[in-house]
Amino acid sequence: MSLLEDFVKFLNANLPKAPSFHPYYEEALGVMLKAGGKHFRALLLLGVVENVDKSLTQKAMRVALGLEMMHTYSLIHDDLPSMDNASLRRGTPTLHVTYDETTAILAGDALNTHAFYEISRADLPAQT
Q1: Which of 10, 71, 82, 109 is the most exposed place for a label (fewest CB within 10 A)?
Q2: How far apart are CA 75 and CA 38, in angstroms?
């Protein structure tokens, strides 16, 4: 399995969960993460880790996921009507188009916060 396939499998198994009374909030958290893309930043991080110490690659998946969440948050906010007002991202309707602007803002904010949570959960030595 390639590094990209490993990462996508990890991403899909670790999508953020936030049960809520909101009818589609939890779904909105994962839409843009699952929309594809190259996952360039995550793969760059994992590629460096793999070349420095291959034994840490799986442990670095949480850091790569956090990085991907941070990047996705920035894209969600960039797509908002008050910014670029984009209707598509990665060939998928943007969150404010699919749901509404409030949901997009809340999902982006949640991914920003959840990114740091994922990074903090990485089973890596403190100096790493």
Answers
A1: 82
A2: 14
Q: Which pLDDT tens digit goes with each residue over 5-23? A: 999 999 999 999 888 888 8
Phi and psi torsions of 32, nearest 5°: -75, -30
pTM: 0.93
Bridge partner list, 92: 89
Collect all residues with Cβ–Cβ distance below 8 Å to 96 and sequence separation of at least 6: 79, 80, 81, 103, 104
Instruction: Look at the alpha carbons of 71, 73, 77, 79 in this order and tell me if their dihedral is positive or negative.
Output: positive
Tokens of 94: 């943007």
CA dihedral 26, 98, 65, 82 (to 10 degrees): -110
Assign 23 to helix, strand or coil: coil
Q: At what angle do helices 61-78 and 3-13 cross, to 10 degrees?
A: 70
Longest dimension (CA), the chain: 45
Is residue 28 a contact partner of residue 15, using CB atoms and an 8 Å limit? no
Kindly report the number of other CB atoms within 10 A of residue 85's CB atom: 12
pLDDT digits (tens, 9 = 90+) for 26-67: 899 999 999 878 999 999 999 999 999 999 999 999 999 999
